[in-house]
Write a structure and sequence with these properties.
The complex is a heterodimer. By secondary structure, chain A is mainly β. Chain A has a single domain, classed as Maltoporin, Chain A (Beta Barrel), CATH 2.40.170.20. The longest helix of chain A has 23 residues. Helices cover about 35% and strands about 25% of the residues of chain B.
Chain lengths: ~675, ~180
């Protein structure tokens, strides 16, 4: 850690931190003593009990209030009131996440820097099942979807989630949790009609299966319109997807709880690029609009067994298949088999231990094209990991310490160790002060570790009349990228109506991927052309740091305000340029008489210097009406501030997909239960 | 330079605004610790008929139906005594014989989809049947714990209580919402 200690920034902040702790101490000590555990509650009379408040504002944060991590929860109701109609967009509500829409079907989403359309440092899961595509180490948000009303909540942890979730959870973990089918035991149909979201229809039905189980089935189709290109004309990126699935929850006895979940989807996405090379002779590129078909599905089984002593075993298995054709680039087929086992138990009076193992077998197949050749075309490989974590209460109800590590084994980078240590200080049940030091790793993706893989990323004609192909070459010894993260956070419940959450972090990265170019050389077959090679290597080290603050304020019984602020800096222009250095948002939710709801959100995103994208201030508004318990009608406007604007132009996965401008959108939604 | 001061300012600002609220505490499952305290207090004001117990010194059994955070909340009651009897806490996925012969039966919120079925199978029991869903009392439950404006309130189906042989003290009835 020599480099880290010698940065000027850290030395200066150490003094500042010491000052801050001195200021913090007296306030912590003076905080009033309030009955905490149930023993005290039982000493109170019935009248006293009836006076006690369960705060509604922090209810969503309740189970996570004393966690030693930068965690934020979006509830199903947040999504409904904010008017978002897909998951990627709904993530804009999370402080510390940078969400940029590149085209109608492509998003660049990251936490704490390194945004890229194939943002590779964020682990995204649905019900514990990772949905990122290991090939590019990114998420194709277009093909992962749910009926939004069936989302229980989305938990976002910024920062390394290494211990429990393994490699790739370098900058964050997003887990989308769907509702237990017990909670969706009726029919629900919803229709959206708008100018951008031209049509979205979903229907879901649930019922009991015998005495001890419940099920739900659903179908969803949508068609979304193109955005506009840089001249303002309609572009090429319209897309449509149909999907269907089911979920069954079964509690055979009081110890066991199982659920089964499956899904199938099929669709196509519009795509176009002007720069991906497609032949040796002019025209070097094919700039026609293409339709890229996608198809896939999954099946998952999860079993939790809770014993009398409170210990818990969790076993999960899933199979996932994804097929995607990206015209002129590759036909990709991916099969994943995953087995996961975790055991949580108490040892002594103050140790809570969790340990687990996971094995993932991936079989992939790449079709070759002029632009991309992955060697070998087919591969079957394994990731195996083991983790263990101990949470101990150093001082009862005041200080807890969590120590853990994950050990992973994979063919690309061998054995990786990812330790972390966290503490949580809870002087009373209204305040939590936490800190963590963690190490996390991002393992190479298939295209980085490809031995002889090559990708022709750009073609230009040169003055001497020969075409030049910028070509990226994979290598067998591409290393994992490594992160050492330092975080400090503070969470506080002020009275019953104000909640505040603040986090500061400092990340040091080693062995970051960079792509220095070599000298161009001539190749003569099949026809003479120049090659400008880019060698993927791991020679970059960088530091990033920032602050993320969010708050919730229940101003009145019928009016809630949410606000957040994110600030991010990186030590190099390169990383800095792809991520805004400040973002803030204010969201207002107002319940009006006669069952009306008026909600709006203002989101400011600063410019991306590295891509010449100016800052923008987004305005969304929603008017909703729930005349009866079973019917909801709403009118939503998104991006009202501008007829169109750019959010993201390029990234290191360079121009495999042409960007478009995000357009103003208005839609009406009708939801009814039966 | 400017940026570093910004962080420091923000950190100091938030740390200096620490609350001094005399209100209720927060923390994990406060809702269920509170509900458990309600169960304990209200049960004290209830008289069970003789047939509900096997004898004068047999324990008082609380059965929780289905997986519910209520179970953890009630766990802290294990060491206590109620109506001068030892307390036994158990949970069950189905309404079995042991459940039917318990004196307090708690139906967790997630059981809403089969509420009628459960309450139907408990028609002839002498138990204090407690729930936490809308309409619990109307469907045949006896005591329903609900949250109104952030505070816990309770509804009592007095008729059903009487049918089951339970005597409810007027002190408790005064504070409850009576459902017919």
């Amino acid at each position: 850690m020599v480099t880290f200690m010698s940065t000027k920034f850290f030395r200066f902040t150490l003094i500042e931190l010491v000052m801050v702790i001195f200021l913090l101490l007296p306030t912590v000590i003076l905080a009033k003593d309030i009955p905490v555990d149930a023993t005290d509650l039982k000493e109170l009379t019935l009248d006293d009990l009836m006076e006690m408040q369960i705060t509604s504002v922090s209810k969503r944060a309740e189970p996570l209030f004393d966690s030693a991590a930068a965690i934020h929860v979006i509830t199903g109701d947040d999504i409904r009131r904010s008017g978002f109609n897909n998951i990627a967009e709904a993530l804009r509500m999370v402080p510390g996440l940078q969400v940029a829409r590149k085209t109608s079907s492509l998003w660049a989403i990251t936490s704490r820097g390194f945004n890229d359309q194939f943002s590779n440092k964020l682990l995204v899961m649905i019900d514990g099942r990772p949905i990122y595509t290991p090939i590019f180490s990114g998420v194709f948000w277009g093909s992962k979807d749910l009926v939004l009303e069936d989302i229980e909540r989305i938990e976002v942890i910024r920062g390394p989630g290494a211990t429990l979730w393994g490699a790739n959870a370098v900058n964050g973990v997003i887990n989308i949790i769907s509702k237990n089918s017990k909670k969706t035991q009726d029919g629900l149909a919803s229709v959206v009609v708008g100018n951008q979201d031209q049509g979205i229809g979903s229907i879901r039905y649930g019922g009991p299966l015998g005495d001890l189980a419940t099920y739900r089935v659903f179908g969803k189709v949508f068609k979304r319109d193109d955005f506009s290109d840089e001249t303002g004309k309609e572009a090429f990126d319209e897309w449509k997807v149909a999907r269907g699935g089911f979920r069954i929850d079964w509690d055979p006895n009081e110890k066991d709880s199982l659920f089964f979940d499956g899904n199938y989807y099929k669709g196509d996405l519009g795509n176009k690029n002007d720069t991906v090379p497609s032949s040796f002779s002019p025209p070097l590129v094919n700039s026609e609009t293409k339709r890229d078909p996608i198809e896939g599905g999954h099946f998952l089984v999860s079993w939790i067994r809770t014993l009398e002593d409170g210990s818990e075993f969790k076993t999960q298995f899933f199979y996932d298949r994804e097929e995607r054709s990206i015209e002129n680039i590759s036909d990709i087929e991916l099969d994943r088999f995953d087995f996961d086992f975790q055991h949580r138990f108490l040892m002594g009076s103050n140790h809570e231990i969790i340990w687990g193992i996971n094995n993932r077998t991936i079989s992939d197949k790449f079709g070759d094209s002029f632009a991309l050749q992955v060697v070998p075309n087919n591969r079957v490989y394994n990731h195996f990991s083991f983790f263990a974590q101990d949470r101990l209460e150093l001082i009862q109800d005041l200080l807890s310490l969590t120590v853990g590590s994950k050990f992973t084994l994979n063919r690309f980078s061998g054995v990786e160790i990812q330790p972390n240590i966290r503490f949580a200080l809870t002087p009373d049940s209204q305040n939590t002060f936490w800190g963590a030091v963690s190490r996390a790793v991002r393992t190479p993706s298939r295209t980085e570790d490809g031995g002889l893989s090559q990708a022709r990323v750009r073609a230009t004609s040169t003055a001497i009349g020969l075409p030049l192909f910028v070509t990226s070459l994979g290598r067998n010894d591409f290393k994992s990228e490594k992160l050492t993260a330092y975080e400090l956070g503070y969470r506080s419940q002020f009275g019953k109506s104000f909640f505040l959450d603040a986090v500061g972090f400092f990340n040091h990265y080693d062995d970051l991927r960079n792509a220095p170019s070599g000298n161009s050389f001539l190749e003569t077959s099949p026809s003479p052309h120049l090659v400008l090679p880019i060698f993927l290597s791991n020679s970059r080290n960088e530091d990033t740091y920032g602050v993320e603050v969010s708050s919730q304020w229940e101003v009145l019984d019928y009016w809630k305000l949410n606000a957040s602020f994110t600030w991010f800096e990186a030590s190099s222009e390169d990383i800095d340029g792809n991520v805004p250095d400040t973002q803030w948002q204010i969201r207002s939710y107002l319940d009006l008489p006669y069952k009306f709801e008026f909600d709006f959100g203002v989101y400011f995103v600063n410019g991306l210097n590295g891509q010449n994208i100016p800052s923008y201030t987004r305005l969304d508004a929603r008017l909703g009406w729930r005349p009866t318990e079973k019917l909801e009608i709403s009118l939503v406007g998104q991006n009202l501030q501008d007829p169109e604007h750019s959010e993201f132009l390029s990234g290191t996965a360079n121009n495999f997909f042409e960007p478009t401008q995000v357009q103003r959108s208005v839609f009406g939604k009708l939801t009814w239960q039966f | 330079m400017k940026n570093r001061f910004l962080i420091l300012f923000l950190i100091l600002f938030f740390f200096l605004v620490v609350p001094f609220s005399p209100q209720a505490s927060q923390g994990e499952s406060l809702e269920y610790r509170l509900k458990a305290a309600f169960v304990y207090k209200i049960a004290d004001f209830i008289e069970w008929p003789m047939e509900a117990f096997s004898d004068k010194s047999s324990p008082l059994t609380i059965s929780v139906i289905g997986r519910s955070p209520f179970f953890e909340g009630l766990n802290s009651l294990k060491e206590k005594r109620l109506k001068n009897r030892k307390l036994i806490l158990r949970s069950s996925q189905v309404v079995d014989e042991q459940t039917k012969s318990s004196q307090i039966i708690v139906v967790g919120a997630l059981q809403e989809y089969r509420l009628e079925k459960i309450l139907d199978s408990l028609k002839n029991s002498h138990a204090l049947i407690i729930g936490e869903n809308q309409g619990f009392c109307k469907k045949g439950g006896i005591l329903n714990l609900i949250i109104e404006k952030g505070k816990i309130r309770f509804e009592i189906n007095y008729k059903k209580a009487k049918q089951s042989g339970l005597k409810v003290s007027s002190r408790v009835l005064r504070m409850a919402k009576i459902i017919d």
